[in-house]
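User: My advisor asked me to double-check a structure prediction for Glutaredoxin before group meeting. I don't want to rely on an old file, so could you generate it fresh from this sequence?
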Amino acid sequence: MDINEQIKSQLEENPIIIYMKGTPQAPQCGFSSRTVQALMACGERFAFVNILDNQELREGLKTYSNWPTYPQLYINGELVGGCDIVLEMSESGELAEMVKAAAKEQEA
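Assistant: Sure, here is a fresh prediction for Glutaredoxin from the sequence you gave:
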């Protein structure tokens, strides 16, 4: 499976997924830490991928998403954005709405 197929598979299998440095319990950078905290505040389950564990994925995702930095949050297969965008959406309430809607779709 090539890296693009791997990414597509991860996005199809996980309606809410964050590609980050480290894990939600032990983020390896401040941007990942703040982004995952905003996501956790929504109260729904989400998947994560530690990009530090896979250099090929780390580089391939930048090309796939056309987004050069991490973390990257995807909801329903669509790139939402990185830290600044996620934090803005969290403050406005938009993030919680999107996350809850995606979680509800998964349950259905």
